[in-house]
Structure formats: C-alpha cells, structure tokens
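Batch job 17 of 40 flagged for manual review because the log was empty.
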Amino acid sequence: MNFPGQAGLLLRQQSIEAVAGAQRWEETAIGQRQRLRISPRIVLLTYHVTDRRPSAESDYRAHALSCYRLDEGHWLLAYHQQVPSS
C-alpha cells in the first residue's frame, strides 16, 4: 500500500498492521469509478473516495487506485495507493 505523508510505502505485514490498528471510517462515499482489466487475472480499479472519521475535523478526500489479482477463485488486493484531493 502506498499512502501520502509519513505513512509512505507499506509492505504486506505493515499494511495488515496499519489496517488492523486504524480507526474505522464512519461514512464513505465512492465516485468516479473506472475499471481496467489488465488480464483475465488482474484488474485495476480507480475511484474518488470521501471518508469521514468520528474524530476528524473534516472529510478525507483522495483519488485511489486498487489492483486486484485472481488467486484460486478469490480476488486479492495486490496494491493500493491514495493521492489526496480537494
């Protein structure tokens, strides 16, 4: 996973720990969705996300890219990146 700021690039175990320890989103809106099938087993999703956490002063807005790969019948997240937007 690749996040802006100090979080930066997180490898697999770091990503799992970051997600497990993060405060949950209170509300999420997803828009501007696009899907690009790279191959029968790889799909890229791009979208704009607006999230709100209970403790936050303002919404978090970002352009996101998630890459999934098909593995034994299950879609698994292979890569995720967020770029803050206004």
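Reviewer: the log was empty due to a logging misconfiguration, but the result itself is present. The mean pLDDT is 88. Unflagging and moving on to job 18.
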